[in-house]
Amino acid sequence: MSAHASGLPFGIDFGGSGIKGAPVDLEKGELTDERVRVETPQPSTPDAVAKVFADLLAQFPGSDGPVGVTVPGVVVKGVVQSAANIDKHWIGENADQLFTDRTGRDVHVVNDADAAGLAEVRYGAAKGRRGLVIVTTLGTGIGSALVYDGVLVPNSELGHLEIDGHDAEKRAASSAREREDLSWEDWAKRLTTYYRQLERLFSPELFVVGGGISKKAGKFLPLLDIETEIIPAGLRNAAGIVGAALYATES
Question: What's the predicted TM-score (pTM) here?
Answer without folding.
Answer: 0.93
